[in-house]
């Protein structure tokens, strides 16, 4: 017989020796009888948890208090034109629901149909072409280069007219 078989046989025989009927379990039977004779205990009801009203942060779309404030120079302020105005009948694109400051250019793509800018923001990376809109101020992409995206926004001038404001979204390297 092999050594493994001998060891297995010895372990099996030792296991059977422990299964004999001469084990004394009278102390266990006495404890179980004592537990059965106890009066049933009372279970406390579960505590009632109050629900609190949810809090909705409503200032997420406002200017960040950590960004530099724009100084308004009334003497050097450009006056808008009555010819320039946003197209109110145009269907808004998805990215027009977000502030333009949160977008950053991360790359470009080019193929037979044209050149595209890759902008990160609004929960993902978006592929945009010249003529697409983004930002809350009717920002329209007018040029895409390897280093930046040029956007023209239409903003009110504060006197009832509209003003075209150029913006540039530079390529963010190492992103």
From TrEMBL:
Q: Which PROSITE patterns match?
A: PROKAR_LIPOPROTEIN (PS51257)
Q: Which Gene3D superfamilies match?
A: 2.30.30.830
Pfam families under this entry? PilP
Tree of life domain: Bacteria
Query: What InterPro entries has UniProt attached to this entry?
Result: PilP
> This chain belongs to which protein, by name?
Pilus assembly protein PilP
Q: Which organism is it from?
A: Pseudomonas silesiensis
């Amino acid at each position: 017989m092999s050594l493994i078989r001998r060891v297995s046989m010895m372990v099996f025989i030792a296991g059977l020796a422990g299964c004999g009927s001469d084990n004394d379990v009278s102390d266990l039977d006495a404890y179980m009888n004592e537990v059965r004779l106890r009066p049933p205990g009372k279970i406390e009801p579960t505590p009632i948890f109050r629900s609190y009203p949810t809090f909705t942060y409503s200032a997420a779309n406002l200017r960040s208090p950590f960004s530099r404030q724009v100084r308004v120079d009334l003497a050097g302020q450009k006056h808008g034109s009555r010819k320039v105005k946003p197209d109110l009948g145009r269907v808004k694109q998805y990215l027009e629901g977000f502030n333009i400051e949160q977008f950053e250019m991360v790359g470009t793509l080019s193929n037979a149909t044209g050149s595209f800018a890759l902008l990160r923001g609004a929960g993902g990376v978006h592929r945009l072409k010249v003529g697409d809109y983004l930002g809350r101020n009717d920002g329209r992409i007018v040029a895409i280069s390897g280093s930046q995206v040029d956007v023209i926004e239409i903003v009110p001038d504060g006197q009832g007219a509209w003003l075209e404001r150029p913006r540039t979204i530079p390529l963010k390297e190492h992103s």
